[in-house]
Amino acid sequence: MGRLDGKVCLITGAARGQGAAEARLFASEGAEVWLTDVLDAQGAAVADEIGGHYRHLDVRDESAWTDLVQEISGTSGRLDVLVNNAGIFDTGRHFEIDAVAFQRVMDVNCLGVFLGMKAVSPVMREQGSGSIINISSLAGLTGGVGAFAYTTSKWAVRGMTKAAAAENGRRNVRVNSIHPGLIDTDMLHQLPGSQDEARLTRRIPLGRAAQAEEVASLALFLASDESSYSTGAEFVIDGGLNAL
Ligand SMILES: NC(=O)c1ccc[n+]([C@@H]2O[C@H](COP(=O)([O-])OP(=O)(O)OC[C@H]3O[C@@H](n4cnc5c(N)ncnc54)[C@H](O)[C@@H]3O)[C@@H](O)[C@H]2O)c1
Questions:
Q1: Which of 20, 147, 217, 221 is the most buried (most CB within 10 A)?
Q2: What pLDDT sits at residue 200?
Q3: How far apart are CA 114 and CA 236, in angstroms?
Q4: Domains detected in the chain
Q5: Whole-structure pTM over 0.85, yes or no?
Q6: Residue 201 in contact with residue 158, Cβ under 8 Å?
Q7: Which residues in the chain come in under a pLDDT of 70?
Q8: Which candidate in 89, 150, 155, 235 is catalytic?
C-alpha cells in the first residue's frame, strides 16, 4: 500500500530539482501527480517517466492557476495536495538591488505561493481535507547577508503559511512550510562561491549539502495523512545549520 494512495497532488517547479524529486516519490507512493513548471520539455519528460500529467504553469499567472485547478478537479474529481515549490534565487544586499530585481523575486516566490493557495483552497475546503506545503528556506528563518529579496520572500512564505493555516484549519486543510538549508540542485549552483563545495558546507553540522530526495521525504510526510495533526508549522531540513 502506498502512503499517498488515492491522493491527487499538484507540484509547482516540478521539472527539476526538489519538485521533480517530490513528483517521483509521490508517484511511487501511489499518488496521481500533476507536475507544472515553465521548463516544458524537462517537466513533460519527468511526467512521462512517472506516468503523471504535465502542464505549463507560470506561478505568477492567476488565471492559469484558476484554469488548471478547474481542469484537475474536473478530471480527477479532487485535489488533495499542493506543493508550492517553484522559486528563484537572486543575490544582492538591500542597498544594492533595485525595485525591479526585488519585485521579480517577490512575484515568483511570494505572489506565486499566495496565488497557489488561493486557487486550491476552495476545492480543498469544500472536500473537507487537503495539505498545502509551501517551500520556504532556512532564509525564511534567519537574516543573512547578500540575498535580501530572496530572504524577504521566504519570510513572507512562512507568514502566509501561518495565516492560511489559521484560516483553513476548521475545514481540515493543513498548511505547513518546509525550510531547506543547502540542497544540491541547480539553484545551489547559482550561489556565489558554490564551486568550492568544501567551503560551502564547512559550517553545516552534518558536513554536507542534502540531496533533493531528502527534502522529498519530508514533503511526503506532510502530504500524507501521517502528518494529520500538523498545521501552521515550520519543518526545518538543513543538516543542523539553524542549530549554530
Ligand atoms: N537548493 C537550495 O539550496 C534551496 C534551499 C532552500 C530553499 N530552496 C527552495 O526550494 C525550491 C525548489 O528549488 P530547487 O532547489 O529545486 O531549485 P531549481 O532551480 O532546480 O528549481 C526551481 C524550479 O522552479 C521553476 N520556476 C522558476 N520560476 C518559475 C515560475 N515563474 N513559474 C513556475 N515555475 C518556476 C524552475 O523552472 C525550476 O524548475 C525553491 O522554492 C527554492 O527557493 C532551495
A1: 20
A2: 87
A3: 21
A4: 8-239 (3.40.50.720)
A5: yes
A6: no
A7: none
A8: 150
